[in-house]
Amino acid sequence: MVEQGVKYFVPYRSPTDALSFFVYELYVDEAGWDAHNKSLHFLSVVNELVSLAAHRERVPFVPLAQSMA
After folding, report:
1. CA pair distance 11, 19, nearest whole angstrom
2. Residues with Cβ within 8 Å of residue 1, at least 6 apart in sequence
3. Which residues form a coiled coil (predicted)?
């Protein structure tokens, strides 16, 4: 899937726990992230995925150089 404003969207699954997932997402900017969260494909699946998750946590990061500016 190619989506404007998204640099990377890579889902991972634990090799030892098939029910454990991690998704690495990188957006061009905050507007790209916001657009993704408002997209029809995101809105159509997010509630279903969240209902299946035992634990969900969003941990935002910024590039190290940006955080030291």
Report:
1. 13
2. 9, 41
3. none
10 within domain boundaries: yes
**What is the full per-residue pLDDT of the chain (69 aa) written as tens digits?**
578 999 999 999 999 999 899 989 999 999 999 999 999 988 988 888 888 888 888 888 888 887 676
Write 22-25 long-range contacts (CB < 8 A, 24+): none
> Is residue 68, in this structure, part of any structural domain at all?
no
Residue 1: per-residue pLDDT: 57
Domain count of the fold of the chain: 1
Burial group, residue 32, by CB count within 10 angstroms (0-12, 13-18, 19+): middle
pTM of the predicted model as reported, rounded to 2 decimal places: 0.71
The 3-state DSSP class for residue 21 equals strand
